[in-house]
Write a structure and sequence with these properties.
By secondary structure, this protein is of the alpha+beta class. It contains eight helices and 38 strands. Pfam families: Ig_3 (PF13927), MALT1_Ig (PF18703), Peptidase_C14 (PF00656).
């Protein structure tokens, strides 16, 4: 029997097999990392490492790749044999964390090392919750978040994010961080879900802001005042800075006051801020305040005055967003035995403010300090009025300053009455959305009372050119300026004189007043050759013609010559409103009527027409003289005829 020995067999590996892939790592900056790959195949195997941009890693031709990790990078290894077979390992990421590594052990072997723990948070309901932790590890650690000890199966990243959190997302959170070497736990943190803060209230706005300012100073039968000129002028400028449409008037009769107030009331509407200011003589009776017109006789009756509460009643009837009345006048009590007439109150609409210069049965003072006159109340009102604060808070600061003023200590104390239900301020913005039609109508009416004549350039026969320009001191006081612009060679010693037809009284020409107004008109850049003040424009019934007289000397003949030109400026400023028509209608109304007998402590030694500029810090009250002229039994008895309650009329006994 013959046999043969079995021949030994050899198994050939025809494919390359990777038996161990490299593993990802998470390490600090510049940490040394070794990536390892193990493969089996036929013959000698060769290796080539690549980075994620598919570039060969220099020197990366061994099964082990050692790098100094400077940034996060992905790597892969290609394994080749001699038969041109090849295979790639799995991609791995070396994640580099640029964070504090001071706690990392020197002999660290890759077990998870927590570098960042999550922090407790208070998160508003409906917003995003974000918790973060971070750990070094080789292999890269696995993260598993827990809330109140229960795993959150879908939360396996280093950052936990939950959108639109609700109350159920509150609790204690921690994270398990592990790899094949070890498991570590972060510190537990509390997450509180809080209700969102209430949104800030929408900024209060006005649909428009309208102001009427009246200052009475040149009384025909009562002591004159000084301060209303400057008080009204400065307050008007400040209110214009706050966005108010301002009409400012001086020296009005009772009928003119009523006509101006009627025009003012017509400009008010729903959502508008209305402000009425008065400086001048006044008094109080049975809780009603009365403003004394410049034509009030001696003694005067309430039919010669304006009732403040009736003005407020009319303002509220227009459904304004805020109605403010500021009174720099006395409040002395007169005729307390009289039964007052009644003004039917409106519903409790609120947002009304009275700012009184002084308290009940007291006087308000004006001070003449050097070259400037001002009411004590208005002095501090102008100081604070631009402040962006609730209007009553502004008036409180005014009250505090008046209380600190030694000139009126114990004599004058501001009083504030209001029904404010919203924190409205005089600085509130104007928002016209939805009210553009009403705004346009108000704009037309307001511009009518504030429209200035255009600048005129006049050329005389002799060749001299004169510019005539205009400026409004008040809505019923216009100033014309004449400035010589060009003088030919044959003319010399040119002067210009302005006059008007009809002639209009200059209420500032009296002692001490012209200087104050000149300080407002002139500056270094505006020095006209002549000025003309046109006052009491509310009385104007025809167009004004300004006459410009040029006087010059002819150089050759040395004779003095005069040439004249005229400029028709129409009915400027408030003259265009034709308040005298309102005056006629006003005479047909039923009005309050009461004879008032009062005593005053103000000096009678100086008439208003000739009152000299007072010494520094000399003060006067704004209380009108009302001395009796007759000895009749009823000379001191008030009689009130209210427009709305005539049936209740009965005289005081």
């Amino acid at each position: 029997m013959t046999g043969s020995c079995p021949k030994p067999t050899h198994t050939m590996i025809t494919e390359i097999v990777i038996v161990r892939h490299p593993v990802s790592a998470c390490v600090p900056v510049n940490h040394k990392v070794t990536l390892r790959v193990r493969a089996e195949g036929t013959g000698i195997l060769s290796y080539q490492w690549f980075s994620e941009d598919e570039k060969e890693v220099p020197g990366g031709t061994q099964a082990d790749l050692t790098i100094r990790a400077s940034k996060t990078q992905r790597y892969v290894c290609r394994v080749n044999d001699l038969f041109h077979n090849y295979i790639f390992s799995e991609w791995v990421k070396v994640k580099v964390l640029d964070i504090d590594k001071s706690g990392l052990p020197v002999d660290w072997q890759g077990e998870p090392h927590i570098a960042i723990n999550p922090k407790p948070q208070a998160v508003q309901h409906g917003t995003k919750l974000s918790l973060r932790c971070a750990a070094f590890g080789i292999p890269t650690p696995h993260y598993q978040w827990y809330r109140n000890g229960q795993p959150l199966l879908d939360k396996t990243a280093d950052v936990l994010q939950i959108d639109g959190v609700t109350a159920e997302h509150g609790g204690s959170y921690l994270c398990s961080i592990s790899n094949v070497l070890e498991e570590r736990w972060t510190e537990p943190v509390d997450v509180d879900i809080v209700q969102p803060d209430l949104p800030p209230p929408a900024a209060l706005t006005a649909t428009d802001k309208i102001a009427l300012l009246i200052g009475n100073l040149n009384y025909r039968h009562h002591p004159g005042l000084m301060a209303p000129i400057m008080d009204v002028h400065e307050l008007a400028n400040l209110l214009q800075q706050l966005g108010f449409r301002v009409v400012s008037l001086l020296d009005l009769t009772r009928e003119e006051m009523m006509a101006a107030i009627d025009k003012f009331i017509q400009l008010l509407d729903r959502g508008v801020y209305g402000l009425f200011y008065y400086a001048g003589h006044g008094y109080e009776h049975a809780g009603r305040n009365y403003l004394v017109a410049v034509d009030a006789p001696q003694p005067y009756q309430t039919k010669n005055c304006v009732c403040v509460q009736r003005v407020m009643h009319q303002m509220q009837e227009r459904q304004t967003a805020m109605s403010v009345i500021l009174l720099d006048t006395c409040r002395k009590w007169y005729n307390q035995g009289c039964i007052p007439s009644v003004i039917k109150p409106l519903g409790p609409n609120g947002n009304t403010v009275y700012g009184y210069a002084t308290c009940e049965d007291a006087e308000a003072y004006e001070v003449q300090d050097g070259g400037k006159s001002t009411g004590i109340f208005t002095k501090y009102l102008n100081k604070h009025i631009l402040q962006a604060d609730k209007v009553t808070h502004v008036l409180e600061r005014v009250s505090e300053d008046v209380g600190k003023d030694r000139l009126v200590s114990g004599k004058q104390a501001v009083e504030i009455k209001h029904t404010m239900k919203e924190p409205r301020s005089l600085t509130d913005k104007v928002r016209t959305t939805g009210h553009t039609r009403e705004l346009h109508l108000r704009d037309v009416c307001w511009r009518q009372a504030n429209e200035l004549p255009r600048k005129k350039h006049l050329t005389f026969l002799c060749g001299v050119e004169v510019e005539v320009s205009f400026s409004a001191l008040f809505s019923n006081v216009l100033v014309a300026f004449a400035t010589i612009k060009t003088t030919p060679d044959h003319t010399q010693d040119c002067t210009v004189i302005l006059s008007s037809n009809p002639a209009m009284e200059d209420i500032f020409s009296r002692s001490g007043r012209s200087e104050e107004m000149d300080s407002l008109l002139f500056n270094e850049t505006h020095n006209p050759d002549c000025t003309l003040r046109l006052c009491s424009l509310q009385k104007l019934k025809e167009s004004v013609v300004v006459k410009v007289d040029l006087h010059y000397t002819h150089k050759d003949s040395n004779l003095r010559h005069t040439e004249s030109l005229q400029v028709d400026i129409g009915k400027p400023l408030v003259a265009s409103c034709k308040l005298y028509r309102e005056n006629r209608a006003g005479k047909d109304r039923k009005t309050d009527g009461a004879k008032v007998q009062c005593m005053s402590q103000i000096s009678r030694s100086k008439s208003p027409q000739h009152q000299a500029l007072a010494a520094p810090h000399r003060h006067f009250t704004r209380k009108a003289e009302c001395a009796a002229k007759t000895a009749t039994a009823r000379s001191n008895e008030p009689e009130e005829n209210d427009e709305t309650e005539l049936q209740d009329f009965r005289p005081c006994e």
